[in-house]
Structures are given as C-alpha cells and as structure tokens.
Specification:
heterodimer; A: 213 residues; alpha/beta; 38% helix; globular; B: 722 residues; mainly alpha
Chain lengths: 213, 722
C-alpha cells in the first residue's frame, strides 16, 4: 500500500466517550459495544484519498484514564491532527474539553488540526450537551465541530476525512513543512524509497536510531 | 465456355503479338495486298488506273487539307464511280455480296463490283488510297486479309494467286519502292499474319460470337497499345461489318443479333437491293475516314489516360461499339463459311478491295488529323449532299451511305463520348477501388502517413507502452517485495508505531529521570543509586546477534510464561506473544511438511515470505509488549518492590525472544535449503537465506532496542516510587 502522505492523528478525550469505538468504526467499520480499557495507546490505520492522492491516516488512540494522562501526553507530539472527543450524554466530558485542549496545544504542534467531536449522537434522548454548545466551543477555540455516532457510523468518516482535508489544505498552503516530521506528516515510502534505494533494513534502523536521538 | 474463353484469350494474345510484329513489316504487306486487289481489279488497264489514282489523290489531298472540301470531292468521286458501278454491281453483285458478307468484310459488294465490272475509277481510287496509306494500315490489312484467308481456307488456290499478285500490283500502283523486297517480305508476312489471324479468328468462329467478348477486349487492348492505326482499322472493320451485315440481311442469313444499326442498314438494303456497291463504298470510306479521325481524337484522349486505362481496362465491362460491331461481324462470318464455296475468288478480291478502302480511310485521318473536329462537323453536310445527289439517282446505296454516315457520326460521337466517359469512369472506379479497397492493418494509410510524424507517434506510443509495462511490472515486483519485506511487514503489524510510541515514552521518561535526579535530595539519590545501577546492569545484556551458540530448541511458551509472571505487572500477559510464536511454528511446520509431500509445492519465495512475515510479526508483538510493559510499569509502580528483578526478568524475556528469532531464522533457512535442493536452481535460494538471516538480525535488534527503551522508564519508576 503505497501512499503519498502519512498523517498522524491522536484521539483524546475523557475515558468512555467512545474514542476507541470511533477508531474501530473508522478502520474496521464495525461497532463494539463493550470495549476494553485502552492501555497507554493503541493504533489504527486507514488509507483515504484526497485530491486524487493516497493518504495514510495513522491514528493513535490514547487511553482516556486520568492515570494515563502523563503517559499519553508524551504521544501528542508529532500529530498532524487531533480528534478531541466528548460524550454528548455526559456533560463532564464536555467540561473537561478545556483541559484536553490545553494538553494538546501544549504538547503538539501549534499547526495541529483539532476536530471537536460530540460522540454518541445516536443517544439523542440522553443528550446532555446541546449541539449548539459544542459548536460554540469549537467556534471559540478555532476547532472544527461535528457530532458523530460510532454506533451508527454517522459522521465518523466525515470527521476523519474532513480533518485530513484540512491538513491537506494546510500542506497546499505551505503551512505544514512536509519535510519536518514533527508536524506529523511523513512522505510515503514511494518518495523516500526512490532516494534510499533498497536499503530498507538499514532504513528501519536509521529511523529508530534517529528517534532515539 | 471457360475453356473456350481461355483459348480465345490465348489466341488473342498471340494475335496481339503477331500484329505488333506485323507492324514493322506493314510496308511490305500493304503493297502486296493492295497489289492483290489491284491485280484482280486492274485487269483493265494500268494507265487508267494511274489517271484515276492521280485524280483520287488530288481529291484525297483536298479532303485532307480541307475537311469540307473533302466532302464535296469525295462525293463527286463517288458520284462518278457509282454510276457505272451500280449497274454492274446489280447484275453480278448479288452473288459476290453473299460471299463477301460471309467473308466478314462486307465490303464484298464493292469487291464484286470491281471484279466484274473492272471499273477503272474505283480501282484506281482504291489502289491510290491503299498505297499512300499502307504504312498506317498494315496491321489492319493483315487482319483483314487473314480473316479473308480463313474464310477462303477451303480454296487455297485463291490465296496462292493473291500471293503471287502483289508484285504486279505494286508495279501498277504508285509504290515503286523495292518491289522485290516487298514481294518476298509481303508473302512471308502474309503467311505469318494469316496463321496468326487464323489463330485469332478460329476461336471466334468456333464459338458463338458473343462469348468471345474477352478476346475482343484483349484485341482491343492490343489495338490501343499498338496505336491509333489499329483502331482505325477496327473501326473500318466495324463499318465493313455493318455493310456485310446489310448484305447478309439480303440473304436472310444474318442473325437476330444485329442491332439497331444493322436493322437500319438492312432496312435500307432491302428497300433497294440494286444499289451500286461502290458508291456506298466511297461513302463508307469517307465516313470511315471521319470515323477514324474522330477515333484518332478519341485515341489521343484515351492515350492521355492510357496509364489509368490500361490498369483498369479489364474492368471496363461495357463493350464498345467496336466490339459490338465485331460481334456482328463474327456472326456474319459463320454463315459465310457455310456458303462461301463458289465465290471464293471473288470474296478474296472483295476483301482486298475492302482493304483498299480501309487504307483510304486510314490515310485521310492522318492527313486531316488537325481538322478532325471540322470533319465531324462537316459530316452532316456530307450526308445532305449524299441525299440530294443520290436521291436524284434513286440509288439505295446512297441511302445506305447516308445512313451509314449517320451511324458513323453517331458512332464516332459515341466513341468520343464513351471514350471520355470511360476515362471518367476509370478515374472514378480507380478512386472507388482505392477508397473501398480493404486495407488490412491500414498499411496504405500508414504508408501515406509515413512521410509525416507516424514513426514518431508510433515510437512514442511504443515507448509509453513499454514504460507502462515496466512501471506496472515494477509495481508488481514492489508489491511482491513488500510482502516479503521485513520493514514493511513490521510497519503493517504496527511494530513501528509501537516502537515509536515506546521511544516517545522513553524519551519523556528520560527527561523526567534527569529532572527527578536533579530534584531529589542527595541522600535519597545515594540510597536509590544501587537500584538504578542494578537496573542499568540488568539492561547490559550480551549482544545476542553475533553468536549462534544457544540455538538449541527451547520451550518458548513456558519460558515466557514464567518470565511474565515474574514481572508482576497487571494487564501484561505473554499470551499474545505465545500465540504468535505458535502460529509461526505451525507455519514453519507446514512449510517443511509440504516440502516433503510434494517437492515444488511451496517454492522458495513462498517460504521466504512466510519466514519474513513470522519474524516481523514476532518482532512487532515483542515491541508492543515492551511498550505495554513500560506503560504499565509507570502506572503500577507501587505493586513492585524490586525493580531490579523486573529489569532482569525483562532482560530474560528479551533473550528468549531473540533466541526464538534466531531459531526461526535457522529453521526457515533449513527449510529453504531443502526446498532449493529439490528445485532446479539451488543457488537461487542463497540470497533468500541470506535475507532471512539479515532480517532475523534486524528483528533481534528491534527487540533489544525496545528493551533498552525500557531502561529510562524503569529508572523513572524507581525514582518515582520513592
């Protein structure tokens, strides 16, 4: 699977808002009502096409538990996009958004595209946070807003893809430097391999050692 | 029919050759022929003839010089001759006519008349006309003579006489050049021609005239090739034929095939059988002259397009008037053969006379070539003159002549039109052929485009195609290579991401450790120092790559289970690793087994791929477990009393994992080797084996790197525990 770009996403938010379910819905198109607690970080990946270009989304699904906050915080770095998720049926998840947002802004690139997601939109009866509130919060903090349902898959694709489009647009506008991997954007193996030849094994070691430094 | 046709073709071809050959000789023959006729006719007196010749020559020259003038002259000449002729011809003419008509050259009337009456004027005129013309008409004459000969076949005596005659005739007539040569050559030529013509004509006779159309076509072609002269002769022949047709109509021997012209003629002939033969003969000659002149024009036209015409001539299926006339002629001929026993000599004479006439006709066109059109225009006038003049005399021949003239004009006009139409038709047909001709592979179109940028375009297309093929091939190879590429597979198993996350976590921990070390009071640090050193020592494991010493089989599941239980970290279980390792071993077993069962079932590449996949997956899971261990170690630091033990346990896990990787690499290499030994190219497996070992080294490197990344995490945990 060759791709032109690789975008790193992080999904953050209080525990139990449905971060892992959103990821599962997006990558596997399935819904799992009972999900194990995420330890540290889990990963998902999927290819999408924007403007005729293959883009690989590498999604870091972080643990929402407060105890993992210190650990997950270290994973923010180098993310091109962030999905900040709250549960529309639980106002406290919405109230914690500011903290999450501060964490994200503090530990990641300032250019990171953040999508505010009010999940569990299928549970309209139990809605605790109005959509307008979410929109207002997004407007206030310069976020993209969307209400989704990992269960019904409503707006799940759009949430991920719109974020990718935003990132892609920023690349086109020159906001992102694609050669600086701290922005969370990597060139696909095609481009890099064309330069590096067939020294893949060495390439793997290099990337690792480079990471160490 | 087909056979006969072919025969006709062959004979026709021969005939062509003969005619072409004859051409050069013509001078010789002409005199002969003319001599023949003149001999027979000339029994009268040479002096008279000479006089007549002079007169006729003058008339001819006049006609040639001035088209209109000609008409009047000719008509006059006709007038004078006809008078005497007519009477004679009436008496003796009938017999001769029949025979003559049978002989094809229909002019028989004239000949008969001449023979019997021996009229000087006519003969003179004919002889005159013959001699000057002879050059052009050689071939025609030859043909005519031959045909006559054929008819006369039965009576060879006449031939001999005719052959012998030439000399005398030549003497009599103007041509006084090389009499001897002419005689000898003429005789030979005659014989040759006669034989050739026999070949030509015999098939026609045998068949029904209409069936011989192909032959005629060929003849016509040859005529064209030979030049206008032959065509003239043909036209003359046609005219003669028509006349003969008229003659035959008297005898009721003519067939139904006769066309309108014939009908007209016959009608006229029936009305007045007593007509003076040579009168219309004159008219005929004039007409034929006009016809030939027109035909010359037509020929020129045609010759202009000769190249096109020749190529497509065969495709011109419509028979020309000439051909039609020939058909009629042939029909007329057949009866002749039957009837022509008695009048052999007369017919031969008549033929010769006819030839003479033809000569005249041919002459005139040459002279009047520039004035052709004028002639054509003048013809109607001629006709009128004829009508008036002959009408007063009440001679059927006049009417005939008139009708003939009309016909001739029509015919020539038709010829002209048809000639040009033929040209147009040819051009159109050629164009149509070119357009509609199936062009497989568009060769012609390509040829047309050859001059342009075709090679460039095609080469470009080929290049693009090659490039595309190459690219697709490369992509295919790429995909294939990626399937067996450790780095790619490691990434797909998310080993890289886990490693990256572990790195990030490790980096963060390292920073924290430094800050903690700086923040903690000195005594605290000194108390923790042994633990930190012990942990660090635990992580300084021997390089597991470069020695194959401990590659003995081990119980991976048991070892891992023990070690993980010693970790005392909730949420971390060796089950994932153990499952992966089990699957790998099963896969390896499958590879080996399938090898034993059927040798080439799993080729080396397949085994290599399985091996690389196993290594990548095992490595990825190992890194994932290390990452998890790190995260949980940070989370659950309170449960564990001694981090040194934990570090040592993790080190043991790392050793076990590396050992497993080594064992797998060896086993896969062995499997590859056995597979390679069974295959036809054992050496081809070497790079694959090398690759397995290389990737195994990479795998253990990743594992040890991940292991090392845990050090700051454990250090931080140790520090934070305090």
């Amino acid at each position: 699977m060759s791709y032109a770009y690789l975008f790193k996403y992080i999904i953050i938010g209080d525990t139990g808002v449905g971060k892992s379910c959103l990821l599962l819905q997006f990558t596997d198109k399935r819904f799992q009502p009972v999900h194990d607690l995420t330890i540290g970080v889990e990963f998902g990946a999927r290819m999408i096409t924007i403007d005729g270009k293959q883009i690989k989304l590498q999604i870091w699904d972080t643990a929402g538990q407060e105890s993992f906050r210190s650990i997950t915080r270290s994973y923010y770095r180098g993310a091109a996009g962030a999905l900040l998720v709250y549960d529309i049926t639980r106002r406290d998840t919405f109230n914690h958004l500011t903290t999450w947002l501060e964490d994200a802004r503090q530990h990641s690139s300032s250019n990171m595209v953040i999508m505010l997601i009010g999940n569990k939109s299928d549970l309209e009866a139990r809605r605790d946070v109005k959509k307008e509130e979410g929109e207002a919060f997004a407007r206030e903090h310069g976020l993209i807003f969307m209400e989704t349902s990992a269960k019904t898959a409503a707006n799940v694709e759009e949430a991920f893809i719109n974020t990718a489009k935003e990132i892609y647009q920023k690349i086109q506008d020159g906001v992102f430097d694609i050669n600086n991997e701290s922005n969370g954007i990597k060139l696909g193996p095609q481009q890099s391999r064309s330069q590096g030849g067939m020294n893949q094994a060495g390439g793997g070691g290099d990337s690792q050692s480079g990471g160490c430094c | 029919m087909s056979d006969t046709d072919e025969d006709a073709f062959a004979s026709a071809d021969e005939g062509d050759v003969s005619t072409s050959i004859d051409k050069p000789k013509p001078t010789l023959q002409k005199p002969d022929e003319s001599g023949d006729s003149s001999d027979k006719l000339n029994v009268q007196s040479q002096s008279d003839i000479k006089k007549n010749i002079d007169q006729s020559e003058g008339a001819i020259s006049k006609t040639s010089d001035q088209s209109q003038g000609k008409k009047s002259d000719q008509s006059q000449g006709k007038k004078s001759s006809p008078k005497s002729d007519s009477a004679v011809s009436q008496t003796k003419g009938k017999k001769g006519r029949n025979k003559k008509s049978k002989n094809k050259k229909g002019k028989g009337n004239d000949a008969i008349e001449k023979e019997t009456e021996k009229e000087e004027n006519k003969h003179v005129a004919e002889s005159e006309t013959k001699s000057p013309r002879s050059d052009n008409l050689d071939t025609n004459i030859c043909e005519n003579v031959e045909s006559v000969k054929e008819d006369i076949k039965d009576n060879e005596i006449t031939e001999s006489t005719t052959d012998s005659n030439p000399t005398d005739k030549i003497d009599d007539s103007e041509d006084k050049t090389d009499k001897i040569n002419l005689k000898d050559d003429g005789q030979e030529a005659k014989e040759n021609i006669s034989s050739d013509l026999q070949e030509l004509l015999s098939p026609q006779k045998e068949e029904i005239p209409r069936d011989t159309t192909p032959t005629r076509k060929i003849q016509r072609r040859s005529v064209k090739e030979d030049g206008g002269d032959i065509e003239h002769s043909e036209k003359e022949e046609n005219i003669l034929e028509r006349l003969s047709g008229a003659a035959t109509s008297f005898d009721t021997t003519h067939t139904d095939v006769e066309e309108n012209v014939l009908d007209k003629l016959s009608g006229a002939a029936n009305a007045k059988e007593k007509s003076g033969g040579w009168g219309w003969g004159w008219g005929g000659s004039i007409l034929s002259t006009a016809a030939t002149s027109v035909s010359t024009f037509t020929n020129q036209l045609e010759e202009g397009f000769s190249t096109v015409l020749e190529t497509v001539e065969s495709s011109l299926g419509v028979p020309d008037p000439d051909e039609i006339a020939r058909i009629q002629k042939a029909k007329n001929e057949s009866p002749v053969n039957e009837d022509s026993n008695g009048a052999v000599s007369s017919t031969s004479d008549a033929d010769e006379e006819n030839e003479e006439e033809e000569d005249v006709v041919a002459k005139q066109p040459e002279k009047a070539a520039p004035v052709e059109e004028d002639k054509a225009a003048a013809k109607p006038e001629k006709e009128k003159d004829n009508d008036d003049w002959f009408g007063s005399w009440g001679l059927s021949s006049i009417n005939k002549v008139v009708e003939k003239t009309v016909n001739t004009v029509e015919k020539t006009g038709m010829t002209l039109v048809s000639g040009s139409i033929d040209v147009l038709e040819t051009v159109g047909k050629k164009t149509y052929d070119v357009v509609t001709k199936p062009d497989p592979g568009l060769k012609k179109t390509r040829q047309m485009l050859d001059g342009g940028d075709k090679p460039n375009l095609s080469s470009m297309l080929r290049q693009a195609k090659d490039e595309n093929e190459q690219r697709s091939k490369m992509e295919e190879e790429d995909a294939e290579a990626r399937q067996a590429h450790f780095g790619t597979l490691f990434d797909e198993y998310k080993g890289l991401v886990h490693l990256e996350a572990l790195e990030m976590l490790s980096n963060q921990c390292e920073v924290k450790v430094q800050s903690l070390l700086g923040a903690l009071p000195q005594d605290k640090i000194s108390s923790l120092k042994p633990d930190l050193i012990a942990i660090k020592e635990a992580f300084e494991i021997e390089d597991l790559d470069d020695d194959d010493e401990d590659m003995d089989e081990h119980d991976f599941e048991q070892i891992l289970s023990e070690h993980f239980s010693e970790l005392h970290i909730d949420g971390v279980s060796p089950s994932k690793l153990i499952n992966v390792q089990k699957n790998i071993r099963d896969g390896l077993e499958g590879c080996a087994q399938s090898e034993e069962e059927d040798a080439v079932n799993k080729d080396c590449k397949e085994i290599h791929k399985v091996g690389i996949q196993a290594l990548a997956e095992l490595t990825a899971r190992s890194v994932e477990q290390f990452k998890k261990i790190g995260e949980l170690a940070l989370l659950h630091k309170d449960n564990v009393t001694n981090f040194t033990v934990r570090a040592k346990t993790i080190a043991n896990v790392t050793r076990a994992l590396c050992t497993e990787v080594g064992i797998l690499s060896v086993k896969f290499s062995q499997t590859l080797n056995t597979a390679a030994n069974k295959s036809d190219n054992p050496d081809s497996v070497n790079p694959l084996i090398t690759n397995i070992y290389l990737e195994a080294t990479n795998s253990s490197t990743y594992i040890q790197d991940a292991f090392q990344l845990l050090l700051p995490i454990l250090q931080q945990a140790t520090l934070e525990k305090e």
